[in-house]
Amino acid sequence: MRLTHISAAVWLLISVGVTIVYAAEPSQPSPSVVISVAEDGMQRATITLDSYSYSPNHLIVETGKPVELMLTSVTTLIPHNFIIKDPAGNLSVEQDVSAGKTVIIRFTPTQPGIFPIYCDKRLWPLPSHRDKGMEGTLEVR
Question: Least crowded by CB within 10 Å, which of 1, 61, 88, 103?
Fold first, then answer.
C-alpha cells in the first residue's frame, strides 16, 4: 500500500503518539487600547497571546515615543510569535514567544500609520495562526 504525503504525515503523528487538538475559534475582538506615555517617556502595555488571538488586538501609540510590550503566552503547548512588518521598512518587529513564557520587546515607531500585527506559526498541513484569526493592528498617531 502506497501512502500519500498527508496520510503518511498522519500515520507518523499517530505512530509517535501525537494528538492533534483543534482549539476553539478566536474570541471577539477586544476594544482599541490607547497606550499612554509614562513619566519616563515609555509607552507600555501587556499583550496576552492565546490560542489564535492577541488581547488586546488593537493598540494605539504615539510616533517617536518608545514602546515596550510585555508579550505573555497563556497557551500550554503551542508557541506563537508577534510580527509587525511595514512594507516601506519603517517598522519591523518579530519576536517568538514560547508556550507559557513572557517576553518583553521594545521599539520606537518613527512614522504614523496602521500596521498589521500577526502570528505566522503553523503546524503543517494546518492553516497558519494568522489564517485562524491571530492578528491585530498597531495604530501609530
Answer: 1
Give the whole-number percent of the chain exceeding pLDDT 90. 67
CATH number, residue 84: 2.60.40.420
* Whole-number Å distance between alpha carbons of 111 and 84: 13
Specify the pTM. Answer: 0.76
Residue 61 pLDDT > 70: yes
**Strands, sheet with 102-107, edge to edge from the N-terminal-most edge strand:** 53-55, 43-50, 67-73, 102-107
Q: In the structure grid, which three cell numbers stand for residue 132, read together?
A: 485562524
* Domain interval for residue 87: 24-140
